[in-house]
Write a structure and sequence with these properties.
Length: about 280
């Protein structure tokens, strides 16, 4: 429990301030006790994994079970999503494991940081201790900071991995269904969102997907925005919440991205429908 960690930390700081760094054994003993207390202060691993499971299961059900992902693929059918479920479920499992491993690494790093901070501080105290006013509080605040910030870091891992999960689900569908371009959607209008300026500049721009079927047939060309693989992808950079909305037909492209052959093909289709 966190209360036990703070009790051990208080005792360790008081002991070093009273006696100073008079032996490596004294410091090593407190380091051992602080490490044990900091691990005990964490949410139990099985509870953390259950929270992860619920979070990713919720995203998967909303996007795939309820077909919410089709808002990014308005020309794709539910049948396509159903057919791709094995691949989409595999991505769900892969991303959940990645999030779990990141959280474990962060927890290990937190324990080591507490060790480093305490050991560094303790070794600076001269034998016989110190009487500096406020020394106890200053030391405790400094040493406990990694543990205090960990819940915030873990929430950010949840959020970041969730955005990467959504982006990867979109890419699986776009690749299988034959998307020819993607329109970038920035979240810069969302209050409080710390957007990247270059991502804001991409908002509404349409990026060609290299080697797509329409290019192979000479019906489209790359536009002024360039190719999608020439820029970082939604969710790739830390805490990016941008999304791509995918285009699958020539009629959705801006005129600058159509070749003469592509315009002729659209006219031919329009005439056939009209006829």
């Amino acid at each position: 429990m966190t209360a036990n960690f703070y009790t051990v930390l208080k005792q360790a700081v008081s002991d070093l301030i009273e006696h100073g760094f008079d032996s490596t054994e004294r410091v090593a003993d407190w380091v051992r006790r602080l490490k044990a207390a900091s691990r005990e202060a964490l949410m139990p691993e099985h509870e953390m994994e259950e929270q992860l499971r619920k979070a990713f299961d919720g995203d998967y059900e909303r996007l795939i079970g309820d077909f919410g992902i089709l808002k990014y693929h308005p020309e794709v059918s539910r049948f396509t999503v159903e057919r791709l479920k094995p691949q989409l479920r595999a991505e769900h499992d892969r991303r959940r494991i990645a999030a779990r491993n990141l959280i474990k690494l962060n927890r290990t790093a937190m324990v080591e940081k507490i060790d480093q901070k305490f050991s560094g501080w303790a070794s600076s105290i001269p034998p016989g201790g110190i009487r500096e006013p406020g020394a106890r509080k200053k030391a405790k605040d400094q040493i406990r900071s990694p543990l205090k910030s960990l819940p915030f870091q873990e929430r950010r891992v949840f959020i970041d991995q969730s955005h990467k999960f959504v982006a990867n689900l979109n890419n699986i569908i776009a690749t299988d269904a034959g998307a020819i371009a993607a329109e970038w959607h920035s979240r810069f209008r969302v209050p409080g969102y710390q957007y990247r300026e270059d991502h804001k500049d991409r908002d509404g721009r349409i990026y060609a997907i290299r080697g797509n079927w329409a290019m192979d047939k000479g019906l489209m060309k790359v536009g002024s925005a360039g190719y999608l693989d020439e820029i970082t992808q939604p969710g790739q950079e830390v805490f990016c919440r941008c999304t791509n909305h995918f285009l699958y037909s020539l009629r959705r492209l801006p005129q600058e991205m159509l070749t003469e052959k592509g315009r002729s093909e659209l006219q031919r289709v329009a005439a056939a429908i009209g006829g």
